[in-house]
Design brief:
Elements lengths: L7 E7 L4 H16 L4 E7 L11 H14 L19 H12 L6 H11 L8 H12 L3 H8 L2 H16 L7 E6 L4 E5 L4 H25 L6
Parallel strand pairs: 1-2
Antiparallel strand pairs: 1-3, 3-4
Helix pairs in contact: 3-4, 3-5, 3-6, 3-7, 4-5
């Protein structure tokens, strides 16, 4: 028996160590639990340009105080990962993408990298640090992971998914693209709480079921 494809798909565009993506992760996990089997879930890298990253430790601390306060977090994120000589955090994104290419397609590796940076303050912008964390989390060979992460093919995949994100004409990570099998699309950018996402998914699932019911009763449209 052929497996039925879910009627709704949600794509999570993220930057691995983004603080707002960190705050969105509980929502992502709950959506996956709540809609298991009914919605297709995937994530894609949306690499930030250099100017979008904090340019100083003081800026990063300010951003973390702001986002943590807005989220009513009982803890403050760790700024120890910041490296003034390595502002653009390409390494975490490339390593997470490489791990997926090597078969770790869930959230395990990217969350390990994110937590190592945002919670533990580890300098995941350095190849040796990031690969060590990712390989342990995904049970991957470090040398092979590093080779794939540094490959042209991985860089091109990250460039492609980042261009997809840019084409949505938004600039906030996280961004969620929700699509259904009747052609509806919704882009929710910068939102980290579950209510608007769940409401959108519920509406799309209901509409898709309604269209399926119509087709069962009346078939496809008549020929022109």
């Amino acid at each position: 028996m052929q497996e039925t494809k879910p009627a709704v798909k949600i794509t999570y565009y993220l930057e691995v160590i983004s603080s707002w993506c960190h705050w969105a992760e509980p929502t992502w996990a709950e959506l996956k639990r709540r809609y298991s089997g009914r919605v297709e879930f995937c994530w894609k890298i949306a690499q930030m340009p250099r100017e979008a990253y904090p340019q100083s430790l003081e800026q990063l601390e300010w951003f973390y105080r702001r986002s943590g306060s807005i989220m009513r977090s009982p803890y403050m994120l760790n700024t120890g990962w910041f490296d003034p000589d390595n502002i653009e955090m390409r390494v975490p994104n490339l390593v997470a993408e490489a791990a997926r290419e090597l078969g770790v397609t869930d959230d395990t590796v990217r969350l390990a990298i994110q937590n190592a940076a945002d919670l533990d303050g580890k300098k995941v912008g350095r190849w040796e640090v990031c690969v060590e964390i990712a390989a342990a989390a995904g049970q991957l060979d470090k040398a092979k992971l590093l080779a794939v992460a540094q490959s042209t093919a991985t860089a091109e995949r990250v460039k492609k998914t980042s261009a997809e994100f840019d084409a949505l004409q938004v600039n906030q990570r996280p961004t969620f693209l929700i699509e259904d099998d009747i052609g509806d699309r919704a882009v929710l950018s910068g939102l980290v709480r579950i209510e608007p996402l769940a409401a959108t998914i519920d509406a799309m699932l209901a509409d898709s079921a309604a269209y399926a019911s119509w087709k069962a009763h009346f078939g496809g449209p008549p020929a022109a």
